[in-house]
Amino acid sequence: MSLNDPISIVPAFGEAIGMSVHGMEGARLTVKVPYAEHLVGDPDTGVIHGGVITAALDNASGWAIRVGEDWQEGMGMATLDLRIDYMKPATPQVDLLVTAECFKATKTIAFVRAVAYHESPDDPVATSIASFMKGTPNEPRS
Amino acid sequence: MEILKQLRDEGRAEDMQALMDHIPYARFMDIRVDRKGNELTTLLPFKDMLIGNPVLPALHGGVIGTFLELTSVIQLLYNTQCERLPKTVDISIDYLRPGRPVETYGRAVVTRQGRRVANVRAEIWQDEINKPIAASHGHFLLTPV
User: Which of A59, B114, B125, B141 minimizes the number of CB atoms within 10 Å of its CB?
Assistant: First the structure.
């Protein structure tokens, strides 16, 4: 991936949770969040917090739109809604992977499915469905 | 969660900040809890690391989601006598306005509390309470004492 790729810049909060692009296969984009103590949601079990998974699902979903064919440089985008189902607790000490795929995009709206897992997307920690508005303003408000 | 029992034993069952601080991820995000009477408000002070869109700039969708979820959970812990942290079954988030780089506030309402599952709605806002930047509703599994 070159520096000009729309997904080469990890946002500040992505960096804060240690997220990085793990790979791409066709329209599917995968990010990785390494296990870390500051991400823990329940100190009794060491399981990472659902909010970490939310952040990775949201970010991967947005990026899955950006790597699509009809994406234009500098286009703005905003999450309209994000619904997450938590299937099982994440495993402590193990890195989290999130794979996202934009399965339908119109001129204005994009629909994205994503799954969070450790070993295989067939054994999910969480799944999400999100819709995004494309072409929203992307410059600082005056 | 030991802390819940410990706080009850110490007569500090309503010290929601102590509970919040017990969650490493909440501490990392620096989420505060303000209690006036029986009304809880969560606070998320702005920090550069919370940014998701550096151009606008705007808060990360994951920050907004986390803040809604923790606002819901802390209200649920306040309303119920839980033994452990409630487990999120699902949460549905509506992003209503861009989260500007300022302090954010949150409140949650437990719309229904069953024996095993609770439904919680939450809203977060910045300058104006009647202009929420995001709202959520979620289901949480409870473990009653």
Answer: B114
The answer to whether the CB of A116 falls within 8 A of the CB of A53 is: yes
Tell me the pTM.
0.94
Torsion of the alpha carbons at B112, B113, B117 and B118, rounded to the nearest 10: 60
The per-residue DSSP string of A45-106 comes to TTEEPHHHHHHHHHHHHHHHHHTSTT--TT--EEEEEEEEEE-SPPPTTS-EEEEEEEEEE-
Closest CA to B26 of B73, B60, B90: B73
User: Is A49 near chain B, with CB under 8 Å?
Assistant: yes
Q: Which two tokens stand for residue A134?
A: 């494309």
What is the ipTM score, two decimals? 0.92
Express each pLDDT in B98-118 by its tens digit.
999 999 999 999 999 998 999
With contacts defined as CB-CB under 8 Å, which chain A residues touch B27?
Answer: 38
